[in-house]
Amino acid sequence: MKGKFVIFGAGIAAFIGIILVILCTQGTSGTSLEFRVIDVVSKNWVWDFTAKLQDRFIKGYYQSNTGPVVYRFTGLKPGNWTLELDAPGYVPVEFPVQIKDGKNNIESPIEMTGYEIPGLVEIFVFKEWIGNELILNPRPIDAEGLGIGTHPCLDMWFGLKISVQVKNGILIKEPTEKGSERGEELFKGKCEWEWDPDPDTYYRYLVKVPFEKVKKHNAPYHVYDYVIVFPDSRKISRNELESKMEKALSLPGEAELRIFLDSLQDKITYFISTDWNQPAGK
Question: Could you give phi then psi for residue 47, rounded to 5 degrees?
Answer without folding.
Answer: -75, 135
